Fold:
Amino acid sequence: EAIAALRPPPFKRDAERLARQVRHWPVARAAAALGRLQEAEAQCKASALPDEVMCARALLEVSENARRQRR
Structure:
């Protein structure tokens, strides 16, 4: 239902892949990942460090946590 509400709508092949991925993200884990990304955004705005580095680090942490949870 949520995937169907996306605008612009994803292609059918992409929507199926997205639906499979969503099953691996319980609400609590997705909320934690979004929280980490929001934290990275705030750090980018408040720091002189390169944004690309901070964003890459945050995305790596999120993906590593997801990988660990799937085991």
The first helix runs from residue 12 to 22. The radius of gyration is 15 Å.
